[in-house]
Amino acid sequence: MARPPTSRAGAGKAGQGAKDKAAAAAAQRQRPAAPIAAKSGKNATLILAIIVMLVLALFERPVCMLLFFALVPTMLAWLVDNTPGQSLIRTVAPLNLASSLPFAIKLWHEHNSLDQVFSFMSGSATWVALYGAAAFGWMLYYLAPAVITTVVERRIERLRDAALDRQKALKDEWGEDVEK
């Protein structure tokens, strides 16, 4: 395979500057593509959620009403989360949905009526269960990185101390020349 010819030291400096500017301009034009892709995924999620809620409202109005009130923290997480992987939504939504499912199942098996939904919503234990799980999801989102960082730092410290102890043992065994 032939290599491209290399330019001489002084030749082509003016042409190289124009190429660098063109490459920088092309790179800047490409940068907004990532937020647009993230935004389109977020819009697809919104459209899917609206369709599911509309279908649920047509066939199971009480369950739709329960889920609408129960999933408010997930809706807020969806509005606030601008991270590329939507990690806040992926943390809050499953916990929030899991806390609302027992109430939805109870609603399906007992009186599937709006009166039952309002009796659920009038109890403080329902709100604590629904929003407590979502609050735990928000707490996980904010505290998990700090906890993981601390654990990794401690592990690195222990490994460093073990390596220094091993180095000292080798120095004691073989003499000062080992260090050089």
Q: How does the SSE layout of this entry go?
A:
Layout: H1 13-30, H2 33-59, H3 61-70, H4 72-80, H5 87-109, H6 114-122, H7 124-174
User: How would a crystallographer describe the biggest sheet?
Assistant: none
Could you estimate the helical fraction of the residues in percent?
Answer: over 70%
* Tally of individual helices: 7
Helix-strand pattern, N to C?
HHHHHHH
The rough form would be described as: elongated
Number of strands: 0
Radius of gyration: 29 Å
Q: What value does the average pLDDT take?
A: 78
Residue windows where pLDDT falls under 50 for at least 5 positions: 7-13, 31-37
Q: Helices and strands: which structural class? A: mainly alpha
Strand content: under 5%
Distance from first to last alpha carbon: 45 Å
Verbal overview:
The protein is mostly helical and 180 residues long. It has helices at 13-30, 33-59, 61-70, 72-80, 87-109, 114-122, 124-174. The protein is built from 7 helices and no strands. The relative contact order is 0.07. The chain has a domain at 35-144. Helix 3 (61-70) runs parallel beside helix 6 (114-122) and helix 4 (72-80) runs antiparallel to helix 5. The protein is 82% helix and 0% strand.
Summarize this, please?
The protein has 180 residues and is mainly alpha-helical. 82% of the residues lie in helices and 0% in strands.
Task: Using brief descriptors, characterize the structure shown.
180 residues, mainly alpha, elongated
